[in-house]
Every structure is written in C-alpha cells, then in structure tokens.
Write a structure and sequence with these properties.
271 residues; alpha+beta; Ubiquitin Ligase Nedd4, Chain: W; Arc Repressor Mutant, subunit A; 3 domains; four-stranded antiparallel sheet; 9 helices; Transcription elongation regulator 1-like protein; FF_domain_sf; transcription coregulator activity
Length: 271
C-alpha cells in the first residue's frame, strides 16, 4: 500500500485556531506560516498586533497538526497487514480518511492564500499612486473607521491595522498623518457637538411651548413638576445636563412674564 508523498507546494495544508482570538495559524506545504482572520477574511504573513504578546503562539506554530497526522500514518504503517482483501480495504479506508481530513483542512484555508495574494497585488498597485492620493485614501480610512480625535495612536490602531489602506504609507508617515488628522478632527468634533447641543436646546424650547406653560409658573420651583410630566419625551432627554434644562425652563417662563407685562401695558395705553 503506497502513501502519497507528493512534492510540497505553497498551498495551505493545515490550520488551527488561536484560543481567545479571531485568528487562525495556517501552515503551507513549503512549511511557511501565515495568520488568517475568517471573520474579516484577512490573511497576513506578519504576526498580528493583537497576537504580539501571546506566549503560547510559538508553541502552537511549532506543533503543526498535519505533521502529527503524518506521524500517526507512519506509525500505522508499522503494523503488519494480513493477506486479506477486507483488511486491505480497511487499511486503505483509514489512510483515505486521514488524507480526506487533511485535504478538507487545506480546502478551508485555501482562501487565505488567495486573499493574501489579492491584498498584496492591490497594495502594490496602490503604492504606484502619487503620495498625495495615498494620503487622501489614508485619511478617508481614519474617518470611515471612526478613529476618535480624543484618543491616541496606540489605542486606535486596532481599528485600522487590518484595512488594506493602512499599508499605503510607511510607519512614520502613518503617525504623522494620524496626528494631523486628530488635530483637525478635534475642532470639527467640537463644532459638531456644539451644533448638536444647540439643536437639542431648540427642540427643548418647542417642548416647552407645547406644554402650555403659563407665566404664573415660578421658575425652578415648578421645574420638578414639568420634568415629572415630560421627562420621558426624547426632546427632554437630548439636553443632557439638568442645570441646562432648568435654565431653559426659567428663561422660557421669564419670557412669558415679560410678554404678559408688555401686553398689559399696551392695553392700558389703549384705554
């Protein structure tokens, strides 16, 4: 009975998941190792950032499952087989079963190799783009990935490191563009927050108008009554601070009192 000893190639032959992470270690036929993330459909040759401090990773890499299967096959071959066709068939079935499992593992991880080649080709083509355009793509990535302007490079790295556009720039350029992006975004985010709060206050005032409050209300002393009645309204909740809610309430009641006073004075002049 012959055992398949075909020449090694660069296709994946085995894989095993890294416990507690989204990554798998994949071995190729020429004894190389790469890392595959099935969730993101991403494969990389270099050790991913979130696996850098994994002390058990080397142990996993040094113990490829397909080598263990090969050893088992060799051990099985040491057992004498009688001249019986049924037993020969059983032996063939065992080896075919092991071979099928290996082929199934290789098939499941073959997409990793194709993904790696596609990604490398894409990045290589993109690297031919002018620097200005590559910087634009990099900035777009930072914005699309939701990088916070109030955080640090180290804390935000996990959001962008797997995006192909991350490779468009070198390490120094990435950090430089990130710093510039953060400074610009701080101003923009402050403006966005300010506009959002302004809109929330406008909506709060509309709620006050709809509530039919009259000038007979005494500011603050009746705010509790108002909040108990309208506190579940989304427009009430959009103004996050109670002191701002109380101020808006007080200003609204004051404006009603002023308007009523002006109306009374106008009526007196008309008499």
């Amino acid at each position: 009975m012959e055992i398949d000893n075909s020449p090694k190639d660069k296709r994946p032959v085995a894989s095993t998941p890294v416990p507690g992470s989204p990554w798998c270690v994949v071995w190729t036929g020429d004894d190389r190792v790469f890392f595959f993330n099935p969730t993101m459909q991403l494969s990389v040759w270099e050790k991913p950032v979130d696996l850098k401090d994994r002390g058990d990773l080397n142990k996993i890499i040094e113990d490829p499952p397909h080598k263990r299967k090969k050893d088992l096959s060799e051990d099985d071959s040491n057992f004498p087989l009688a001249d019986n066709s049924d037993e020969d068939n059983d032996g063939d079935h065992i080896l075919k079963s092991k071979r099928n499992k290996l082929e199934e593992t290789a098939s499941n991880s073959s997409s990793a190799s194709e993904e790696e080649n596609t990604e490398r080709s894409t990045v290589s083509n993109q690297m031919l783009l002018p620097l200005e355009l590559r910087i634009t793509h990099f900035r777009d990535m930072l914005l699309e990935r939701g990088v916070s302007a109030f955080s640090t490079w180290e804390k935000e790295l996990h959001k962008i490191v797997f995006d192909p556009r991350y490779l468009l720039l070198g390490p120094e350029e990435r950090k430089q563009i990130f710093d510039q992006f953060v400074k610009a975004r701080i101003k923009e985010e402050y403006k966005e927050r300010k506009n959002k709060l302004q809109q929330a206050k406008e909506d709060f005032r509309k709620l006050l108008e709809e509530s039919k409050i009259t000038s007979k209300y005494v500011p603050l002393s009746t705010f509790k009554e108002f909040s108990e009645k309208y506190g579940r309204d989304p427009r009430f909740k959009r103004v996050p601070k109670q002191k701002d809610q109380e101020l808006l309430f007080s200003q609204f009641v004051s404006s009603l009192k002023k308007r009523d006073k002006e109306n009374r004075m106008r009526l007196r002049k008309m008499r």
